[in-house]
Write a structure and sequence with these properties.
The protein is α/β, with parallel strands linked by helices. The chain contains 4 helices and 4 strands. A 4-stranded parallel sheet has the order 2-1-3-4. Strand 1 (14-19), helix 1 and strand 2 form a beta-alpha-beta unit.
């Protein structure tokens, strides 16, 4: 249903994800289904083997911070530190810990399923209309 929306009939946007493995993998699959370009999927901890396919991990924080500086006009879904450091041209949503100054999106229902997709779609609308 979302794919047929007039909002997404335009060229889809780009998303930058950072969080634990399940969050990054789940959000990545959701956005790929919506034909978004998933620019980066950054996991907060190292994953090895086939599970790591398409997931980035940075041993050195300076490498990650440099990548983050280059992100522009993306939908950034990450922890509060990343959201705070991302360029102001991005639309930012806090989806994982650490979270100091406000609530993070829950990682349980209704974040998943139909209600969770509806909530994400509201963020997508705000990002596309930026």
């Amino acid at each position: 249903m979302l794919l047929k929306s007039p909002l997404l009939s335009r060229t889809p946007g780009t998303v930058f994800l950072k969080g634990d493995y399940d969050t990054v993998k789940g959000l990545g699959a959701f956005f790929k289904e919506l034909k978004f370009n998933v620019a980066h999927s950054v996991c907060t901890h190292k994953i090895t083997g086939t599970a790591a396919e398409g997931i980035e991990y940075f041993k050195e924080e300076k490498e990650y911070l440099q990548l983050l500086k280059d992100i522009r006009h993306c939908l950034v879904m990450a922890d509060e530190d990343t959201v705070a450091q991302a360029d102001m041209t991005n639309f930012k949503v806090c989806v994982s810990h650490p979270c100091y100054s406000h609530r993070t999106i829950a990682k349980h229902l209704p974040f998943m399923g139909e209600r969770g997709a509806d909530m994400l779609f509201e963020y997508i609308q705000q990002y596309v209309n930026m």
